[in-house]
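ZP: hey, is the zinc ion complex queued? I don't see it on the tracker
AM: it wasn't, my bad. submitting now with these inputs:
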Amino acid sequence: MVCPNCGMENEAGVSECIVCGTPLSTKEISIKETKTDNTISNILIIVGILVLLISFGVLIYSFLSK
Ligand SMILES: [Zn+2]
């Protein structure tokens, strides 16, 4: 792992440069993975809310139509 900031060669698996503390590329990849996970969970939450709203609307409609 070569530091993009100072050019220092760090050991593999190190999250930050030992000289200047710049986050190395492995950390950036994990951040991107967390972002994708957040997007998927956000979509699941939105779908869950939509299902709840639709079922709630159906309940109110069937209650009012009686
Ligand atoms: Zn560095």
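AM: back. DSSP finds one helix and no strands in the chain.
ZP: great, adding it to the tracker
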